[in-house]
Amino acid sequence: MWPRSLFAEHPLVRRWVIVSVLCGTAAAAILVAWTILLAGVINDGFIQKQSFGDVLPLLELMAVLLLLRAACIWLAEISSQRASGLLRSQIRSDTLAHLVRVGPAGLSNERTAEITTTLGQGIDSLDPYLSRFLPAAALSAIVPAGVFVTIGILDPWTTLILLFTGPMLILLLAVIGRRTRSLTEQRFEQLGWLSSFYLDMIQGLATLKAFGRAEEGAEMVEQVSRRYGEATMDVLRTAFQTSLMMEWAATAATALVAVQISFRLIRGDLSFDLALAVLMLTPEFFAPLRRLAIEYHAGQEGNTALERIAEITAIPTQRLANPSTETPAAETPATEDRSTSQIKSLESGAVQFGAVQSGAAQFGAVQFDSVGFTYPEANSAALEQVSFEIRHGETVALVGPSGAGKSTLAKLLMQFMQPDQGQICRDGIPIQRIEHSEWRRVISWVPQQPAVFAGTVAENIALGKPGSSLTQIRKAARVACAEEFIDALPEGFNTLLGENGLRLSGGQRQRLAIARAAIMNTPLVLLDEFTAHLDEETEAQVVSAMASLMQGRTALVIAHRAATIASADRIVNLEAGHVIEATR
Amino acid sequence: MTPSTTAKPGARNISRIVRSVGSYRWWVTATALLSFITLGAGIGLLAMSAFLISKSALVDSTITLALTILGVRVFAMTRAVSRYAERYVGHLGTFKILTRIRIWFFRGMEPLAPAVLSEHRSGDLLTRILSDIDTLQDLYLRVLVPPLAAALAVGLGCILLAGFSPWLGGALFIFVCLCGIAIPLAMQSLTRSSSSSLVQDQANLNATLVEGITGIADLVAFGRQDLLQGRAGHITAAQQPARKQLAHARGIAAGLTALLVGLAALTVLGFGVSLLSAGSLDGVYLAILPLVAIATFEAVGPLSAAYEHLDKSRAAATRLVDLVDTTPTVLQPPQPAVLKLEKRGSPPRDVADLSIANLSFRYSQHGPLVLKNAHLEIPAGSFVVVTGASGSGKSTLAHLLLRFWEYSQGSIQLSGSELNLLDLDQARSAVALVAQHDHLFDTTLRDNLLLGDSRADDQRLLLACDAVCLGDWIQGLAAGLDERAGENGNRLSGGERQRLMIARALLTEAPILILDEATEHLDAKMQLKVLDGVLNWRSGLTTILITHESPLTSNIDMHLHCKDGSFSEVRVE
Asked: What are the ABC transmembrane type-1 domain coordinates in residue numbering (chain B) (predicted)?
């Protein structure tokens, strides 16, 4: 329960949690003293028949204690908040740093969604975990012990009842813990299932409508939602029953203490002030445990979040660093090294001075030579013995069903990761020997779902070439058939995009990505054609933007549209990681 | 969609949702009552116990105490049981409400698909909206119930004390109001600026993270990994002052609350002692006073959480209502005409002539004309092939026929009835469309096929599959028709997907079927086989094939070429 390793990594956080727990303990101790005093004042008024003036000093002392206690609570609260804020920002920056080292290769699409959830909601759920659950857990160990000892001093007999019910309560708490753990997991799963069902229905709305079945869709939503509500109620019922037991045990113990004390009071074994103090202290014995039961959920969520974060930081990093420092020199003959460096200087010359045409003229060809790749956790290879060539100036369409390995191939070509077998060569030179920054000047990429970053339109286009002039940016936008729509935006190229800015439509995003690639002016382009549903007008614009980007360049297109496939120079058909045929 | 929304419209949106979903008045009342019983039993238990102890100090026999002891036990049991009932009933209602909210939202979305939704679908906006619904499910349980229950319990506590002296009840009431209303409101107004900036920063941070991580490939591809960490670090640093201020405010609120509880108990006790000295209070009741005060405050605790949840619910409600209130592009005509179709063939099936005149269309107000004065006459039962470059307008025609977008210039008539005067469902059932981006549901193949004809038996489903050469494939599957299609059909290959969608459309027996580039994933031989199967199935009904390249079949009745938004007939040799 106590996250030792977490605190070992973040000692400052531990310090604040400890301060919070100490203040919480002090507040509880003051409350115990205050309660005993309260019983004393009641005794003075009831039994001793004292007047208001007689008890006033005691009341004043108690008010001072209350002030002290309020201060302790305030301190406990701000230190736990401090701990929470500190830990969250540290974990966030650590995880981010790791993710940047992992790069796109380790982050497949499903994973991305999961990781963003973990980094967003997951890290947010650490707040209740740290600021409420952890102090509650610590206090549930300290405070009942303190109250138990105090009651033991006041009236040893009552401790017998507590000795019996206390462990029973802790046992129940453990049972609740185990149950809620599996329950929250189950509930989470069901909720996830329900959400994806609902998303499926909404995405398929147009189809349902076309078949005139939208009303039945609504009925399905109702049915499934109701069924899952019932299933969830079944699991929740057991959770409630367990906490019913716990509630009952605590209340019954209080009642038992009350009755037992009253008998002994009648027999004269106990004085009234002691009896009342014990009665009022008994709920304080259970309070921290019940508080913990309430916060248990926060604890579970925090634990799950921590586990997920640990999973993320366990993703192995890719060799994204400069390969020239990493390539083992032993395997590489010295002569080849020299030829690589010659190529490098050629390339940089081409990019700096050449227009598209001259860059393309020096590009040559890319050969995939028996390329194989298997993802770390996968059973079968994503790509196996893939060999084909993209000749200079050619447009090659890569086709195949989803999961055939098209995007794996693209990732390898982008050098997001390295092939396990075989190699990708540029004019006979394996591309992993080419420095990353050099390779980026040769190839640019238009992804299927381009990312838009918070910033202006101009900044977004100049992503790969920060500091480009507006003339260059405009030129790139023109190539991408994007100039017109950008000029029509409220502030043209200075319009802010992203979460708080303007939301671009699918077709606009596509063209932005094409402009982003166009400004790089690379001889080779890799395009992952859109599959999103665009209206016909937009689709035509994106298609012509793609065509103008490919103009005069060597291009590999992951093609989804029949027209693109038809207009390609050559078609490479990929199925289950193998090249089936290369036609035309 | 702008994130800046003030509190007022947010509250209006909540009441708007409550009105559409139903107020669940009885259920809210029941939950609040059960919650009140729990709180009341807590007050009763402490008061009874205190009375028991006090009485014990005075009497010397337990018999006189029997009733009091029974009271202690009853309150103890009641408290535990009503807590259980409260949670059970509360959650039961929550699930009912969740269902209703989902249906309300689904119905609200329906008129927007696909014209308005196609914009939203591109982002993950939809996913965010789904989590807004999850936020709203707690609206009733965590926002509406606690204040009701608290009001009742506070009333009980105050009346109980007022029974001893009105001053006592009044004093408790003042303290409870300070704690339950004044402190939260004061804190909220004090920290409004910092908490709203914090919420905004947090949203920015999350957006930056999502944007950076989903776009990490873009960043790496363009060598800009530095962007992500830099921005996240910047936002986190900017949050610090507001975060500190908020922590202080929360600490002060918690401390003040504890202080007020204690002070309330002390005040009531002090009053009690003076009353006792004045002889207007029996001493045996003295212990009850501070304990009732403390127990009453138990009702006030959940209120601050309720305020917090109200803010969240407002934001969520605003986003949902914004989307649902978007005006759909196509509206049901106020007095829909009834489509009368002729039946022909054996077995007799509905057939329809299609005639289009002077039809012009643009997607946006200032966009270019996608259809320009288009004319078309397609008699019932024809097989028509439409070719043309992408963007020439051929798919737009399909969208207009399915009433996904509204047309305002020109006319489209089905057997003499103007399409946009017809009942929407009826108009849609006359036309079936298979397009590349159609959706397959994540359910069994059978369920996906039944969408075409809900009354079809397995035999008929398989017949339709046979027509598109899928019959053998389905028979060969381990689960047959029970095989799952996967998320949007991702367990099927491109070709299987397309043919399944064609089979689904065949089952509708719609008078007009449009295949929009629906056979392009198939090789030439298969394409012809599927087309033969389709035409065979639909002999006597109209089939329109929109394609990139004209197929090599001989039985084409009409070949149209679409260019710049108008259609011209190509002579079939």
From this structure: 30-312
